[in-house]
Amino acid sequence: MSRIWDISQTLGPGLPVWPGDTAFAFDRSWRMEDGSPVNVGRMTMSTHSGTHGDAPLHYAADAADIASVSLAPYLGECLVVDARHARDAVRVDDLPDLGGAARVLLRTFEAFPHQAWDSGFTAIAAETIEWLAAQGVVLIGTDAPSVDPQESKTMDAHKAVLRNDMRILEGLVLDDVPPGRYELIALPLKIAGGDAGLCRAILRELPDA
Ligand SMILES: Nc1ccccc1C(=O)C[C@H](N)C(=O)O
Ligand SMILES: [Zn+2]
Ligand SMILES: [Zn+2]
């Protein structure tokens, strides 16, 4: 049985969310202890909380929602890169030879901030996105909550992703994943009109590993 790494955040009370965004909430609307034959929960959350995939609609008003995008970018071989040495943003010089990888996942946190929001996260420079696209990368993933800096108004990295029709995963948890090649499985929820989709993201050992 090939090894699996769960690279998803756990959704629960106190989940750190983008400043000012919707807090995560979960409760039970049907309870067995109240005589219901089943327990049924309900959730309130931002589309960009936890581990998620951005839809082009998030950064382009007339672009595809998450229910419309192809699933192909979210499934397949990927390269996990340790980019913890990067400073404010990941630059091309921070990256190793990609060996032709079509999906690149960047670890920027020393330890993923599960308990508190970290505004000082490492973004990805727009030039790096352009370089990755030129290398044939179709999906860029990061453990950061955004590919742009928190205070960005120009969204340069997201616009570079749009120009190159790439896909984005944000909020990955890569602390326990050694750099290297894996199979990525991270399918965003099919939300009509969704600007992002929550993912249960995993990595699976490649057969020839
Ligand atoms: N919740 C937000 C509210 C307002 C502005 C940004 C966010 C984000 O979460 C960033 C997003 N994940 C992004 O794709 O960059
Ligand atoms: Zn997002
Ligand atoms: Zn984003």
Order of helices and strands: EEEEEEEEHEHEEEE
Distance between the termini: 12 Å
Which descriptor suits the 3D outline?
A: globular
- Adjacency order of strands in the biggest sheet: 1-13-11-5-7-9-10-4-12
Task: Describe, in plain words, how this protein is organized in 3D.
With 209 residues, the protein is mainly β. The chain has one domain: Putative cyclase (Glucose Oxidase, domain 1), CATH 3.50.30.50. It has helices at residues 126-134, 156-163, and strands spanning 4-6, 25-30, 40-44, 52-54, 75-82, 89-90, 103-107, 123-124, 139-142, 167-170, 180-185, 196-198, 202-204. The strands form three sheets. It has a nine-stranded mixed beta sheet, with no helix packed on it. A two-stranded antiparallel sheet has the order 2-3. Helix 2 (156-163) links the parallel strand 9 and strand 10. Helix 1 (126-134) runs parallel beside helix 2 (156-163). The radius of gyration is 17 Å and the shape is globular. The protein starts with a strand and ends in a 5-residue tail after the last strand. The mean pLDDT is 98. The structure holds (2S)-2-amino-4-(2-aminophenyl)-4-oxobutanoic acid and zinc ion (ZN) (2 copies). (2S)-2-amino-4-(2-aminophenyl)-4-oxobutanoic acid (KYN) binds at residues 18, 21, 46, 48, 54, 58, 145-146, 148, 170. One zinc ion binds next to strand 10. GO terms for molecular function: arylformamidase activity; formamidase activity; zinc ion binding. Zn(2+) 2 binds at residues 54, 158, 170. It catalyses: N-formyl-L-kynurenine + H2O = L-kynurenine + formate + H(+). Substrate binds at residue 18. Keywords: Hydrolase, Metal-binding, Tryptophan catabolism, Zinc.
